[in-house]
Amino acid sequence: MNRDIPALLSKYNREIPRYTSYPTVPYWQDFEDIRAYRENFQSRFSAGNRQEGIALYLHLPFCDTLCTYCGCNKIITTNHSVEEDYLNAIIAEWYQYRKLMSETPVIRELHLGGGTPTFFSADNLRRLLNCLFDLADVHDNRSFSVEGHPNNTTKAHLKLLSQFGFRRISLGVQDHNPEVQRIINRVQPYENVQKVTEWAREAGFSSVNFDLIYGLPRQTEKSIEKTIRDTIALRPDRIAFYSYAHVPWKAKAQRLYDERDLPLPEEKIRFYLIARQLFVEAGYVDIGMDHFALPGDDLYKAFQEGGLHRNFMGYTDARTNFLVGLGLSAISDTGTAYAQNTKKLSDYYRLIQSGMLPVKKGYLLSPTDRILREYILDIACKGSTFLQAEHDGLLNRYVLPELRTMVTDGLLTLNNRQIQVTPIGRLFLRNICHAFDLKNRDAGFGQDKGRFSQAV
Ligand code: SF4
Fold it and tell me: What pLDDT, on a 0 to 100 scale, did the predictor assign at position 453?
């Protein structure tokens, strides 16, 4: 059996989705007529709201400065007068969705993402949250989170968010090395990260997450090791350790640095392995797909108890099957349909002003898609799944042969239809999920160059 990790990484390090949805976004299409989506939304909402609650994602797209590596949907401006128009629009969008809801929504998960949510003043965030909660109830088992920038998150932001019940904050740290920070145009002194982490804990946040990236220009084994050790010293409860995706044809600012400064694929693999070892030695548990958590964190507990879920916000511990995405480019997921808002600000404002949902494209899942999605969610969240006999016709031709190869490579075991991911296989969860991705296979392997990031 081949259990040599670098060799496995070389074999399996392909462009593969992160599987925050199935089918993945490149397979969605423009909605010619969104009536079917609206009907789906209404019936799915009525079916699950009281029992499970709903999740809300708010995309707040503005940033003060451009980080050159960034592939997010963002708008760079230092003009803070944009806050008001945007908040009015997102509140109007919430009112429109609210009209489609047959009863008062029960908010269970809420995530403010971006862009930079802390670009907005605390007062404006207060207005936004008041408008949301005026038309909703809050679930007893709520989970509210926010993405914070270490350079502009203030005590006032944290105090306000804590008052509204936010207990998780995710800080965009990326790398502590000053030279790497200079070249990616994200200069944020370590003291800022330390200060915001302390303030968040003082304000009552029980879970602080750091986002880190490996594969950035000018990173070295030594610099990565120092970044990881400096990170561990602040003891974040969770760490997302993402692989840098070099897609200059999409993220044009990536052309601003010299490609020769990017680490080679084999160096990236070493960075990943160095970091993973340091995290594990420091007591972090590999939850899967780039995520590490300390025992005691809710994500870890959900992982242990088999209660982990995955959606566009990444891994979550509060399972709802109904996500409403508000704001530019935001994605909604009713459980059987996806819808993504337009990515263009002028279109977003125009559609909102004409009283329409600003949805641009999406996807209504077929029964087959739903079966495959459940398998993918099982692998991503539990590291195991059971192949139902009634799905043999669907799985036997392509999925099973690929899984058997992975058994030979030591990534999983397959006994009496039960699949169990091995400890080494946890490094390759995206690949194992990909075995069930018949949509991608139907489109033809090799056609996805540039659509997804590398598995590592
Ligand atoms: S990385 Fe974050 S802060 Fe930087 S440009 Fe992208 S969205 Fe804005």
Answer: 58
How much distance in Å is there from the Cα of 58 to the middle of ligand 1? 16
Q: Half-sphere exposure (CA, 13 Å, Cβ side) for 308? A: 26
115 CA: nearest ligand 1 atom:
7
163: which residues sit within 8 A by CB, 6+ positions away?
none
Residues 6+ apart with CB under 8 A from 339: 31, 34, 37, 41, 325, 331, 332, 357, 359, 361, 362
Query: How far apart, in whole angstroms, are the C-alpha atoms of residue 153 and residue 130?
Result: 20
Nearest residue by C-alpha to atom 6 in ligand 1: 70
From 59, 60, 67, give the residue whose CB has the most ligand 1 atoms within 8 Å, as the site to mutate.
67
Q: What is the DSSP letter of 177?
A: -
Which of 60, 63, 174, 254 maximizes ligand 1 atoms within 8 Å of its Cβ, making it the mutation to test the pocket? Answer: 63
Quickly tell me which residue has 């145009």 as its tokens.
185
* Ligand 1, residues at Cβ distance < 6 Å: 63, 66-67, 70, 72, 74, 114-116, 149, 172
Specify the residue for token string 């879920």: 309
Residue 88's alpha-carbon distances to 111, 134, 143, in angstroms, are: 18, 15, 25
Peptide bond into 114 cis (omega under 30): no
**pLDDT block averages, 10 residues each, the chain of length 456:** 72 85 93 90 92 95 95 94 98 96 96 96 97 95 95 98 97 97 96 98 97 96 98 97 88 88 88 95 91 93 88 81 96 95 97 95 96 96 95 93 96 96 90 94 57 59
The residues that bridge with 113 in the sheet, in sequence order, are 59
How far does residue 173's CA lie from ligand 1's centre (Å)?
11
Q: Amino acid identity, residue 298?
A: D
pLDDT of residue 15: 78
> Cα(172) to centroid of ligand 1, in Å?
8
